[in-house]
Write a structure and sequence with these properties.
By secondary structure, this protein is an alpha/beta fold. It is built from seven helices and eight strands; from the N terminus they run E-H-E-H-H-H-E-E-H-E-H-E-E-E-H. The protein is globular, with a radius of gyration of 19 Å. The protein starts with a strand and ends in a 9-residue tail after the last helix.
């Protein structure tokens, strides 16, 4: 079974929209290494249309320019890129295709099929749907020490909670936290009476 990993730049107040407007002051070698590890090992990348347009508008030119990031640009270009969109799309970036049919059904088939890792970068609506369907194996959050105060947040209103468990955490020199989560079976049950047993004895009166 293939591993599916999603990575997102996120602010302290949960905003994930338009990170190009606020996250670059925090991008350093540590973050570059983390992003490269998430995307560089995947042979398939899933995108929402907006994120794909952003990538396709930049990375082919960077590969052609032959600069210091050309190697990573080639890795992205060589990967299979599947774009979820309700409208018909035309592609100029190689190895790009439009997702056909239902997102969850298609990704389930991809996950159970042959191949290497599958990654997502950004693509908030896709991440939300895959989280709700229990298809993500890892959720990487690069939490920036900044309250953006406007914009779309990762978690929207919904009927049920999505329990997660922390796999790892690392603090970068910029103050960014790299948190890696995996799905958790459930949060279990608990009450204040249960929590009270963990308080210092003097506070339990």
């Amino acid at each position: 079974m293939r591993k599916i990993t999603a990575g997102l730049f996120i602010s302290l107040d949960g905003v994930v929209e338009a990170p190009d407007q606020w996250h670059f002051p925090y991008f350093d070698d540590e973050m570059g290494e983390a992003v490269g590890a998430m995307l560089g090992t995947a042979d398939t990348i899933l995108f929402g249309r907006k994120t794909y347009d952003s990538f396709a508008g930049a990375w082919p030119e960077r590969e052609a320019a032959g600069g210091e990031d050309a190697g990573f640009a080639k890795t992205l270009g060589d990967a299979r890129k599947i774009v979820a969109s309700r409208r018909k799309l035309d592609f100029t970036w190689r190895n790009s295709e439009q997702l056909q049919g239902d997102l969850v059904e298609t990704v389930t088939a991809l996950k159970n099929g042959p191949g290497g890792d599958i990654s997502l970068s950004g693509s908030i609506s896709v991440v939300r749907q895959l989280l709700a369907a229990g298809l993500l194996d890892e959720l990487h959050l690069l939490v920036h020490p900044l309250a953006v105060r406007k914009g779309m947040r990762l978690f929207d209103e919904g009927e049920s909670a999505i329990p997660l468990r922390l796999l790892s955490s690392k603090a970068f020199g910029t103050g960014v936290l790299h948190l890696v989560y995996a799905p958790a079976g459930s949060t279990g049950e608990g009450t204040y009476a249960d929590a009270k047993t963990h308080l210092p004895q003097d506070d339990q009166a």
